[in-house]
Amino acid sequence: MNNRELILSSIQIIENNLKSKLSVLDVSKELGFSFYYYCRLFKSITGYSPKSYILARKITESVAELIETDMRIIDLALEYGFGSSEAYTRAFYKILHKNPSEVRKEGTINRQLLLQPITENKFKEFEHALDKEPEVVFLDEIKLVGIPFYYDLSMGNDLTEHWSLLTQNLSVIPNVKEPLEFYQMQFWFPDQDNDSIYFYVAVAVEKLEFIPIQLTAKTIPAQTYLKFRHKGLANQVGHTYRYIYEEWLPATAYKLPGNFNFEYYGDQYLGPYNENSVSEIYIPTENK
């Protein structure tokens, strides 16, 4: 059974237990995975963390009963494994941006906010956009100055606000390289909650000195990286990451020692909404 089939099996376990207190740890144990590995694999294949998928599916399935029956909200919450009506309401609002009582009163909901079960056919929609075959490259140390932030992956993937903040403050960053070189890094800790990740949007500098207090300096280490090229819209890069981690890497002997990866936006990057835009993805690796 390959990784995709294992994740499909775990999704079936989840679907069969939406009206229980089934935890992500329970599912990972049933499949024989470590908690961390299962969360990373699930996220790389589906685009959702297991926790956010379970939560969204519980809320989605509860909506019909909320609208079509007179069941009390507390009873509905308990039926779907929430410990209280408050916990249910918080989860409901996070996903649907309304309280359960509002939706019941209105008798309708924006169906685009609901999450239907992920099936094998759904996986076929996750098409990658690799522009060329990956390369193994060695990069020298790269010095960066930028803005780090903690990001809730279940809330979407629009980083426009942070990029705008960086570009508006380029003039206060000393020693910026010319022409401009922009980077976006994702990094995490081994035991980190997979619903969130640290992001870092930055510009390359010649040397690190006189860093404005509002900004942070980081250094990308000199080492060997797998280099991938994503061609297309910025909001489709997740499909490319899924292909890399779920299809390409499992078929190789490469080892990934780092808890980070990054993207580089060079002269072929034409903006987030241009289908001909090319960005480069770098993933640290060890020799085979």
From TrEMBL:
GO MF terms here are: DNA-binding transcription factor activity; sequence-specific DNA binding
Enumerate the SMART domains for this protein: AraC_E_bind, HTH_ARAC
User: SUPFAM superfamilies annotated for this entry?
Assistant: Homeodomain-like, Probable bacterial effector-binding domain
Please name the Pfam families in this protein's record. Cass2, HTH_18
Domain of life where this protein originates: Bacteria
Name the InterPro entries for this protein: AraC_E-bd, Cass2, Homeodomain-like_sf, HTH_AraC, MarA-like, Reg_factor_effector_dom_sf
Its keywords, alphabetically, are: DNA-binding, Transcription, Transcription regulation
**Coiled-coil regions in this chain?**
none
PANTHER family attached here?
RIGHT ORIGIN-BINDING PROTEIN
What protein does this entry describe? Transcriptional regulator AraC family
